[in-house]
Amino acid sequence: MSQAITPWVIGNWKMNPVSQDAQALLERLQQLLYTHERHLCHVAVAPTLLHLLWAKQTLQSSVIDVVAQDVSRVAGLGAYTGEVSADLLKDSQIDYVLIGHSERRTLFTDDVAILQDKIRHALTAGLKVIYCVGETLQQREDGLAESTVLQQICDLERAVEQADDWQNIIIAYEPIWAIGTGKTASAEDAQAIHQSIRQGLAQMTDFAQQLPLLYGGSVKAENAQDFAQCPDINGVLVGGASLNADAFYQIIQAFVKTKSSVSIG
Ligand code: PGA
């Protein structure tokens, strides 16, 4: 159990929206978060690569952080058409990157070796990594949800070279069958997986109790509080609902209210 972790609410915009709507979305979000106190909940958005620097500039005096949705498996600079390295992200003051999202794993070519390269280079460049794990529906029905996720955590461990690098890791548990489907894991099932992840992490790092574990998969204003009530769920990674500033804000509020009313210790 880890009540002392400041919650995280991160919006994954995926391949959305067009520029005009992105502008309206950030404007509204900034209005809503005008009086937000950073220590109550970390808030971040992950726009497309095309909107990353614009979002960073727009949000420079705001409490909202900016996250890259992906990074190259190649470090540094060089002749790699279409790629953006962790070093280039860092050079542009982007401090966070999503790695291992199931859409990258299943729709593109991100296998374990590629993901480990991405993690290694991101950590070496000084980025904070939001590493996504999660089982398919078939794996859940076969009773393999926990072992699948723990294997993915072992994949992560092999890419974390320095003990201190664990401080720069956030894990998002996103059951694949719950992403964009309107189905969510029950809060109990999500908590059970989160607890197993934390127990697994405890074998790997002294930072296990401080490591933020987020849930993702059809999180909405209506169900955010259920997840916020779980002791090992330290935040959420939100896809669809993060494209609506008011809905996203309600999710943030659910975490602020629920987590700050849970007694520490
Ligand atoms: P969703 O996406 O909230 O639209 O299900 C979550 C994610 O893929 O991060």
Q: What distinguishing features does this structure have?
A:
alpha/beta; 10 helices; about 260 residues; single chain; binds 2-phosphoglycolic acid; 8-stranded parallel beta barrel
Task: Note the topology.
Elements: E1 8-12, H1 19-32, E2 42-46, H2 52-58, E3 64-68, H3 86-91, E4 96-99, H4 102-107, H5 112-124, E5 128-133, H6 137-141, H7 145-159, E6 169-173, H8 187-202, E7 213-216, H9 224-228, E8 235-238, H10 245-261
Parallel strand pairs: 1-2, 1-8, 2-3, 3-4, 4-5, 5-6, 6-7, 7-8
Bound molecules: 2-phosphoglycolic acid (PGA).
2-phosphoglycolic acid (PGA) is lined by residues 12, 174, 179-180, 216-219, 237-241.
> Helical stretch count?
10
Backbone CA Rg: 17 Å
**How many beta-strand segments?**
8
End-to-end separation:
9 Å
Strand order of the biggest β-sheet: 1-2-3-4-5-6-7-8
Q: Could you say which structural class the secondary elements and strand pairing correspond to?
A: alpha/beta
What fraction of the residues are assigned to beta strands by DSSP? 5-15%
- Gross geometry: globular
Share of helical residues? 25-40%
How confident overall, as mean pLDDT? 95
Listed once per kind, the bound small molecules are: 2-phosphoglycolic acid
Main pleated sheet: 8 strands, parallel, barrel
pLDDT < 50 stretches: none
Order of helices and strands: EHEHEHEHHEHHEHEHEH
Describe it for me?
With 265 residues, the protein is an alpha/beta fold. The protein has helices at residues 19-32, 52-58, 86-91, 102-107, 112-124, 137-141, 145-159, 187-202, 224-228, 245-261; strands spanning 8-12, 42-46, 64-68, 96-99, 128-133, 169-173, 213-216, 235-238. An eight-stranded parallel barrel has the order 1-2-3-4-5-6-7-8, surrounded by five helices. The longest helix is centred in the C-terminal third of the chain and has 17 residues, at 245-261. The structure holds 2-phosphoglycolic acid. Residues 12, 174, 179-180, 216-219, 237-241 line the site of 2-phosphoglycolic acid (PGA).
